[in-house]
Design brief:
- It catalyses: a uridine in RNA = a pseudouridine in RNA.
- It is built from eight helices and 18 strands.
- A hairpin with a 2-residue loop joins strand 5 and strand 6.
- With about 350 residues, the chain is of the alpha+beta class.
- Helix 1 packs across helix 2.
- Strands 7, 8, 9, 10, 13, 14, 15, 16, 17 and 18 form a ten-stranded mixed beta sheet that branches. Strands 3-2-5-6 form a four-stranded antiparallel beta sheet.
- The protein folds into two domains: about 55 residues, Roll (Structural Genomics Hypothetical 15.5 Kd Protein In mrcA-pckA Intergenic Region, Chain A); about 220 residues, 2-Layer Sandwich (Pseudouridine synthase).
């Protein structure tokens, strides 16, 4: 067993890398005696291991780590973003396609929120995407009840304190007042618990619909409710700065980008056909020609074609978030140059 810091990796990192649990969850497994190394049960995560060590979790040998993968998931309302729920409510993991490997969610969307949720099989990637230091803008379309003017939104742009907790300045744009409701586009970088809902309450507004449309360079686009789409490996490597070794690149491996479909929840019909991550669907349409926008476009739908707010200018981020129906499910523009002769790369 290797216990010098200069050799190997922390055991919690190794367990997370194998997709068994996140680092924090792995540390809890170790503390309760569910992990052994070379036949000896351990109770502290302060241990480094190398590929020569035999790690067993819950009686099962730790498999070799799979290459990191990330998926875009259009979370519907009514699902909780946890592995299990004390109240017995359905979770996102209950609704995911069975052919997916074991995945973890990057951050959360609460029960009544919908839109883009990132999934990954790699605990290290999950941690990297969630770190505040990443600084990626998360953009939301938000419907609030009440008459809204610019003066009400100014405290949000300066940074507000709600329930004794200070939130960083938000990017807030008033898109449209529609009867008793108004649609806003809001960009945040922290993603604290119920941050937008709590901040809105602080200025006297009640959120009655919240849709995440982007997370850094990853866009919801026209991905149907309940659908899952894998991010292309090249885009994943470029956006996260992963080395070829970290990606486990194999020259013979086929590129990712396959879309896995589940029937849409509610009255919306599931889309047909695959949408390639980082590229558009059929000409003039999203996947299957459908959009995952509001169920009743005449009753409080977000205005079409609007995103509001300035584009995210931080390095490594893609175009600003689009409202549902604003484009095909996408991640980032393909960095490959177009071939000679003026033809467009498909």
């Amino acid at each position: 067993m290797t216990d010098t810091p200069k050799q190997g990796d922390r055991i919690a990192k190794v367990i997370a890398r194998a997709g068994v649990a996140s680092r924090r969850e792995a540390e809890r497994l170790i503390e309760v005696g569910r992990v052994s190394v070379n036949g000896k049960t351990i109770d502290s995560p302060a241990l480094n291991v190398t590929p020569r060590d035999r790690v067993v979790v819950d009686g099962k040998p730790l498999a070799a780590p799979e290459p990191p993968r990330v998926w875009l998931y259009h979370k519907p309302t009514g699902l909780v973003s946890t592995n299990s729920d004390e109240q017995g409510r359905e979770t996102i993991f209950d609704a995911l396609p069975p052919e997916l490997p074991r995945v973890m969610s990057v951050g959360r969307l609460d029960l009544n929120s919908e839109g883009l949720l990132l999934l990954t099989n790699d605990g290290g990637v999950k941690r990297k995407l969630e770190l505040p230091s990443t600084g990626w803008l998360r953009r939301y379309r938000v419907r609030v009840n009440g008459r809204v003017d610019e003066a009400m939104l100014e405290p949000l742009r300066k940074g507000i304190v709600a329930d004794g907790e200070r939130f960083q300045p938000m990017e807030v744009t008033l898109d449209r007042q529609q009867g008793a409701n108004a649609w806003l586009t809001i960009g945040i970088r922290e993603g604290k618990n119920r941050e937008i809902r709590r901040a809105m309450e602080e200025v006297g507004l009640n959120v009655n619909r919240l849709i995440r449309v982007s997370y850094g360079p990853f866009q919801l686009g026209n991905l149907a409710r309940g659908a899952v789409e894998e991010v292309r490996r090249k885009i994943l490597r470029d956006q996260l700065g992963l080395t070829s070794a970290e990606m486990g690149d194999d020259p013979a491996e086929k590129p990712a980008g396959k879309t896995v479909r589940r029937p849409a929840r509610g009255p919306a019909k599931p889309t047909q056909g695959a949408v390639r991550a980082g590229g558009p669907g059929p000409a003039g349409k999203g996947a299957g020609g459908k959009t995952p926008g509001p169920r009743n476009a005449g009753a409080g739908a977000p205005p079409r074609g609007k995103t509001g707010g300035p584009a995210d200018k931080r390095p490594g981020t893609g175009p600003r978030g689009k409202s549902p129906g604003g484009g095909a499910g996408t991640v980032a523009k393909d960095p490959r140059p177009a071939p000679k002769g003026g033809k467009t790369r498909r």
